[in-house]
């Protein structure tokens, strides 16, 4: 299965792969080489989502997309909580190429306030966490609406995570040369 490379110009998105930096749950770079890539079905849905976000005056900023199995193993070793990290023995939707982690940025390039940062694995990151102010709730619902309209479904515990439905239609892609993992 080949993956589709997502580039900023064609998809009108900003790509900042968090796992190529130390700004993530592992606290270190996990990817030694990484390109943003998705299964072709997810790439089509992402293109639609980007268009919808632009219609509302925003741009999608991508933190992660396809993720090799070796990266999933790293994250599970850091946090073996299935609410936030898929058990590698079951497979991740990122490893199927059908999940994307992202947010919205405004016309000045500033991310909308979503109440927590990316990879904040706490209750405050849940989509329906009730203790955020109305503006945060509005921002989350805006992202939710854009992504659902484009064909993605949310993960209840991570405001930034969206995936295609029917995950079992998509096989795992354990490794791919577009993304390599540090040992």
Give the topology, please.
Blueprint: E1 4-5, H1 8-11, E2 14-15, E3 31-34, E4 37-38, H2 40-55, E5 59-64, H3 69-78, E6 99-105, H4 134-149, E7 153-155, E8 158-163, E9 179-181
Parallel strand pairs: 2-5
Antiparallel strand pairs: 1-4, 3-9, 5-6, 6-8, 7-8
Q: Average pLDDT, to the nearest integer?
A: 93
Describe the sheet with the most strands: 5 strands, mixed
CATH topology: Muramoyl-pentapeptide Carboxypeptidase, domain 2
Rg for CA atoms: 15 Å
CATH class equals Alpha Beta
Q: How does CATH name the architecture?
A: 2-Layer Sandwich
Question: How much of the residues is beta strand, in percent?
Answer: 15-25%
Overall spatial form: globular
Question: How many β-strand stretches?
Answer: 9
Largest sheet strand order = 2-5-6-8-7
**Helix fraction bin:** 25-40%
The overall number of domains is: 1
How many helical stretches?
4
What would you say this structure looks like, in words?
This protein has one domain (4-181): Muramoyl-pentapeptide Carboxypeptidase, domain 2, CATH 3.30.1380.10. It is built from four helices and nine strands. The protein has helices at residues 8-11, 40-55, 69-78, 134-149, and strands spanning 4-5, 14-15, 31-34, 37-38, 59-64, 99-105, 153-155, 158-163, 179-181. A hairpin with a 2-residue loop joins strand 7 and strand 8. Helix 2 (40-55) packs across helix 4. The longest helix has 16 residues, at 40-55. The chain starts with a strand and ends with a strand. The model has no long low-confidence stretch (mean pLDDT 93).
């Amino acid at each position: 299965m080949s993956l589709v490379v997502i580039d900023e110009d064609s998809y009108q998105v900003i790509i900042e792969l968090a796992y190529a930096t130390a700004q993530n749950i592992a606290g270190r770079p996990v990817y030694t080489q990484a390109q943003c890539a998705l299964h072709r079905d997810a790439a089509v849905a992402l293109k639609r989502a980007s268009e919808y976000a632009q219609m509302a005056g925003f741009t999608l900023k991508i933190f992660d997309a396809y993720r090799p199995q070796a990266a999933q193993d790293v994250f599970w070793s850091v946090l073996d909580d299935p609410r936030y990290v898929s058990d590698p023995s079951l497979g991740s939707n990122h490893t199927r190429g059908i999940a994307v982690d992202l947010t919205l940025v405004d016309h000045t390039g500033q991310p909308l306030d979503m109440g927590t940062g990316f990879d904040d694995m706490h209750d405050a990151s849940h989509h329906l966490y009730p203790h955020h102010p109305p503006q945060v709730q509005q921002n989350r619902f805006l992202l939710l609406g854009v992504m659902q309209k484009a064909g993605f479904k949310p993960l209840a515990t991570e405001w930034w995570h969206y995936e295609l439905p029917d995950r079992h239609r998509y096989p795992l892609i354990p490794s791919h040369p577009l993304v390599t993992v540090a040992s």
